[in-house]
Inverse folding.
């Protein structure tokens, strides 16, 4: 069983939902990333999505765009990020790590080389925003052969037939984009998320995480009521943007607040 | 004779092209593809497109013999396909009319566009005014500064121009911002991409709407010269004016197709926008898999060109394919070479060309002298240079 599968079956047995924070690797500096990952786990992260910065993040809002610019200014590359995860694994053998970004850095490294290096470093999954199932079959097969889960997006615009195509390729979990927009948008509508997830679940057996637009304990708790996992990106990155002083502790505390809101008993 | 038929059903031109976008946009692209397939087979749609090209754009554009310049160069006869005489001053409007008619057919009330030189932005704002659509144009902040006349023109036409401050503040960043807008407003909005790039079906439909250039050219060559040219030369940014004139010639043997990229300060300096000439590796950006200027980590490199319309790190997938199968050749002209050709055309023919088109002229200037006077080069004069006058004046140290 993969680390991602173990995580979800442990949570499901306990009737809990996964908390998945996102940070951009190399932001505010490459030397800080591994420490921040441990801080996220201390705050209650079940899985970490580690952003791979790209010069042209066309699906991201300003917060994650700026994070990518800071990370790239420090020379953060996919190869360095793989090394960061290997270092993280020295002290954490259990928390799954999923790389999230755009296709081109992986295309440039090559899927075969990436898959081998990622598996060796203890990377559990890869989500490339601009790689829909149409283009993914051969690439996903290489990742799977290396034990790296290809993770796909579903969207409010996704018709049921496409969900089936995603189900055939996906492993680990699928990521439902809660709204039409870029990361960090603020127009989350939980009722429509709930309705769409009910429709998608007829076609997808994997756990479904929901992200985009979750900013606080209240929205996290509302989403957790309908999803298997809650993904928080821009709001965590905003915390990073506040400066390095006390950052690890602030991340742990912020995530801890979200964690308790998700876990609090429901009437 | 080989029958060229690309792209395939999935939008691939050989190993290039495809659909590399976020999930949210896929259904919109599917809808666009099926609507376009219906429209191109709908005689009423095609008749309206042709009516607009004739009466609103002023087509056919002339094929003009640049006799004095040819004589001065002392070689092949250079003919110019006068896209500069179109309404709005460039080839871009052929495409925006087609796409705006599609937008209207699809019931979209709002259109967005990215622009570099501003020509596509102007052409989009123009057709939006013509068809009563709301129009937002994204433009890199650096390009807003160097193409001021076009920015004002778009505003006169009722469009909102949004300067893009992210990344290198040029065309690629404008395209990123347009994609962000589209993913947010996908239900109400039609994205008019300005070149034969982006996710399928854009490279195909932009080509089809621009192919009128080559269709006319073939007829005009037969009528006016009595034969087809030895070479067809066009500048390549994303490649829409080039594919427009190349496409009808792909299956015609004996016609060299030459695409001219922006050589900037020289391809050897690394400061250019010439992915094909420099042999850039294949990568994924803006929905397509193409030759792409990038570093060893897959990050996109800043490009340089004197002309904003060519300042783009990628190139449309069909050009990558034509390059790979060696049906077309790709070369570069530097900033300086383009400027010399620009001044030549002003002084010998009384035509002020766009800086983009001046790259194609520069290559014709390079090859014509070694050819014989009974040979023919057609240069696609993709646009006029009014928008570039402030840039040229600045280079000459003149305050306007
Ligand atoms: C006059 C002119 N020619 C050429 C181009 C380059 O575009 P493409 O390569 O798509 O023809 C532009 C772009 O702005 C332009 O304005």
């Amino acid at each position: 069983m993969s680390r991602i599968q173990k995580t979800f079956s442990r949570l499901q047995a306990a009737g809990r939902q996964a908390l998945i924070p996102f940070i951009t690797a190399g932001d505010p500096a490459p030397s800080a990333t591994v420490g921040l990952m441990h801080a996220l786990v201390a705050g209650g992260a079940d899985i970490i999505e580690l952003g791979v910065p790209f010069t042209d993040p066309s699906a991201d809002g300003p917060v994650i765009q700026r994070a990518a610019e800071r990370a790239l200014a420090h020379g953060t590359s996919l190869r360095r990020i793989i090394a960061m995860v290997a270092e993280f694994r020295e002290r954490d053998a259990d928390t799954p790590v999923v790389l999230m970004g755009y296709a081109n850095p992986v295309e440039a490294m090559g899927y075969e080389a990436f898959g081998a290096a990622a598996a060796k470093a203890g990377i559990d999954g890869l989500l490339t925003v601009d790689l829909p199932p149409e283009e993914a079959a051969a690439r996903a097969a290489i990742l799977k052969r290396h034990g790296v889960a290809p993770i796909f997006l579903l969207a409010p615009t996704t018709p049921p037939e496409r969900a089936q195509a995603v189900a055939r390729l996906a492993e680990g979990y699928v990521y439902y984009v809660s709204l039409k927009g870029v990361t960090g948008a603020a127009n989350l509508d939980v009722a429509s998320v709930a309705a769409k997830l009910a429709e998608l679940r007829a076609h997808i057996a994997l756990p479904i995480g929901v992200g985009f637009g979750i900013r606080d304990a209240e929205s996290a708790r509302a989403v957790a009521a309908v999803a298997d996992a809650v993904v928080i990106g821009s709001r965590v990155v905003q915390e990073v943007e506040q400066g390095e002083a006390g950052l690890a502790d602030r991340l742990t505390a912020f995530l801890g607040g979200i964690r308790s809101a998700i876990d609090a008993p429901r009437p | 004779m080989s029958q060229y038929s690309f792209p395939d059903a999935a939008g691939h031109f050989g190993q290039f092209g495809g659909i590399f976008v976020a999930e949210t946009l896929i259904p919109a692209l599917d809808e666009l593809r099926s609507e376009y397939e219906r429209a191109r087979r709908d005689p009423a749609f095609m008749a309206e497109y042709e009516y607009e090209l004739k009466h609103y754009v002023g087509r056919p554009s002339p094929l003009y013999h640049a006799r004095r310049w040819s004589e001065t160069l002392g070689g092949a006869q250079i003919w110019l396909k006068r896209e500069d005489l179109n309404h709005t001053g460039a080839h871009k409007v052929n495409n925006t009319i087609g796409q705006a008619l599609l937008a209207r057919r699809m019931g979209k009330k709002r259109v967005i566009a990215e622009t570099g030189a501003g020509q596509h932005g102007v052409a989009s704002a123009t057709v939006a005014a013509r068809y009563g659509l709301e129009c937002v144009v994204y433009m890199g902040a650096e390009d807003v500064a160097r193409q001021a006349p076009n920015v004002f023109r778009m505003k006169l036409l009722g469009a909102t121009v949004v300067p893009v401050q992210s990344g290198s503040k040029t065309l690629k960043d404008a395209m990123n911002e347009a994609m962000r807008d589209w993913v947010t407003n996908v239900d109400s909005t039609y994205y008019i991409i300005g070149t034969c790039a982006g996710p399928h079906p854009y490279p195909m439909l932009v080509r089809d709407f621009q192919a009128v250039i080559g269709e006319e050219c073939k007829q005009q060559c037969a009528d006016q010269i009595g034969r087809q040219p030895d070479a067809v030369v066009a500048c390549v940014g994303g490649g829409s004016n080039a594919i427009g004139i190349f496409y009808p010639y792909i299956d015609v043997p004996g016609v060299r197709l030459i695409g001219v990229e922006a050589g900037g300060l020289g391809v050897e300096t690394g400061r250019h926008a010439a992915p094909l000439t420099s042999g850039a590796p294949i990568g994924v950006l803006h929905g397509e898999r193409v030759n792409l200027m990038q570093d060893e980590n897959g990050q996109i490199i800043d490009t340089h060109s004197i002309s904003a319309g060519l300042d783009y790190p990628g190139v449309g997938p069909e050009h990558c394919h034509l390059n790979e199968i060696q049906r077309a050749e790709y070369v570069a002209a530097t900033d300086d070479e383009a400027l010399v050709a620009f001044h030549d055309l002003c002084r010998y023919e009384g035509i002020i060309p766009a800086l983009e088109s001046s790259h194609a002229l520069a290559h014709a200037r390079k090859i014509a002298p070694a050819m014989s006077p009974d040979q023919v080069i057609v240069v696609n004069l993709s646009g006029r240079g009014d928008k570039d006058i402030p840039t040229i004046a600045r280079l000459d140290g003149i305050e306007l």
Observations:
- Chain A touches chain B through 42 residues (CB under 8 Å).
